[in-house]
Amino acid sequence: MQKEKFTELCRNLAQSDEHELTGTILPIVKEHMIKNKRNRLPVIWLETNDSGDNNISFMNTTFPYLGQVLSDMIDLHFSNTFMAAQGPDALNILEQVSLLYRDRFTLVVEGAIPVNNNGLLCSIALTNNRPITALEAVTNLGNLAQYVVAIGTCASFGGVSAARPNITGSVGVRDVLSREVINVSGCPVNPDWFVGTLAHLLMYGLPELDRLNRPALFYGYTVHRHCQRRSYFDKQDYAEKPGDIECMFSQGCMGPVTGADCPYRQWVNYTNWPVKANTPCIGCTNEDFPDGSAPFFTPLSEKAGEKDRKPGASNLFQGKGV
């Protein structure tokens, strides 16, 4: 499949009644690997300072299920969540794989990186009574990887882990590596965003990225643009309370300044998303989440961080949208 057709598939399938992007992608990936004599994408997955929500979301991928993604598309060599090996055996695998697949593996990082106290506030392992900090592991492995993917908003930009007062000094992966990082943000990430990004890396290399280094495939338009309640917004018909059917802008919805395709991608086996469940979008894919979204149920123009937003955002409140 040509790259342009793959891009069209990712965007259009989400808007169809079928939805099942991951299930549609896998046969394409298998055909590509056979035709081009390619192996599965080698992946090392590190979990650092986070809640583990992204790997749980990834496990919710359906049609096909997680096992098929692992067996048919990616070759997951190390993951503290998914692997059976523990202790020294796991660390030996990590060291051997990082050298064997040097400049060929994809490093996936889930969680922010604490930098205070020389990174000692988050360690991924202990060896010879010495902690291996997330800062050390990500820095070393990031320099050996072909691609680095930050999965989730904590890994991408700091996220909840870096929220005020951020006593751990948590930052995104991009802030500790002097190289390009692909940010697949979300709290948690949608499985399609992650699987689609890995498929693109395997078949075509680096995808087109937006100004925040997120794949434009999934973050190219705002939630507001395709929201099913957009017509209410255009008529300035706003909800009076959570649960009302009108536009959630009055309830603090961050859709006008949040890049994501949630309205038609949806979640939990493609059945729902926040506004459909009668609650506002909280902007979880944004660079300044959660501080920039707080307080959650306050209208966007009244939020504390609104004065710091980029010029031009105010035109969204006039019904123009992006």
TrEMBL record:
Residues 219-296 form the Cytochrome-c3 hydrogenase C-terminal domain. GO terms for molecular function: 3 iron, 4 sulfur cluster binding; 4 iron, 4 sulfur cluster binding; electron transfer activity; ferredoxin hydrogenase activity; metal ion binding. Coiled coil: none annotated. [4Fe-4S] cluster 2 binds at residues 224, 227, 247, 253. SUPFAM superfamilies: HydA/Nqo6-like. Its cofactor is [4Fe-4S] cluster; [3Fe-4S] cluster. GO terms for cellular component: [Ni-Fe] hydrogenase complex; cell envelope; ferredoxin hydrogenase complex; membrane. It is found in: Cell envelope. GO terms for biological process: anaerobic respiration. [3Fe-4S] cluster binds at residues 262, 281, 284. Keywords: 3Fe-4S, 4Fe-4S, Iron, Iron-sulfur, Metal-binding, Oxidoreductase, Signal. Residues 55-201 form the NADH:ubiquinone oxidoreductase-like 20kDa subunit domain. PANTHER family: HYDROGENASE-2 SMALL CHAIN, NIFE / NIFESE HYDROGENASE SMALL SUBUNIT FAMILY MEMBER. NCBIfam families: hydA. Heterodimer of a large and a small subunit. Belongs to the [NiFe]/[NiFeSe] hydrogenase small subunit family. This is Hydrogenase small subunit. It comes from Desulfotruncus arcticus DSM 17038.
